[in-house]
Amino acid sequence: MKMAANADPPVSEMLRNPELAQTEREIERTRARVSRSMIALRDAVSKRTDWREWVRERPGLFLAAAFALGIFWGRRAGRRAGPAGSR
């Protein structure tokens, strides 16, 4: 039976070819390094896009923004309702 051109070489051939075994080890090390990098990147992106982290780092800024937004919405709602004595 013929072996396909792109099939993996038999184990006995890999044992006889130290360069092939070395290349396999290098590929595995590279895969592990890329995997660690991807996990670190995912964690960094998750941390940077988490609104809770932003609030923890800058509580005063968010408190001031919430206060300003409350005043803005309160004034806007007051204009819609009209003067208090007009009802």
Radius of gyration, taken over Cα atoms and rounded to an integer in Å: 32 Å
Mean pLDDT: 84
Report the helical percentage.
Answer: over 70%
- The domain count comes to 2
**Helix/strand/pairing class, anyone?**
mainly alpha
What kind of sheet is the major sheet? none
Give the end-to-end Cα distance, rounded to a whole number of Å: 95 Å
- As a percent range, the share of strand residues is under 5%
Q: With helices defined by DSSP (H or I, 4 residues minimum), what is the helix count?
A: 4
What is the number of strand segments?
A: 0
**3D shape:** rod-shaped
Q: What series of H and E elements makes up the topology?
A: HHHH
User: Unreliable stretches, pLDDT < 50, 5 or more residues?
Assistant: none
SSE topology:
Elements: H1 11-16, H2 18-48, H3 51-57, H4 59-81
Helix pairs in contact: 3-4
Any overview of this molecule?
The chain has helices at residues 11-16, 18-48, 51-57, 59-81. The protein has 87 residues and is mainly alpha-helical. The termini are far apart.
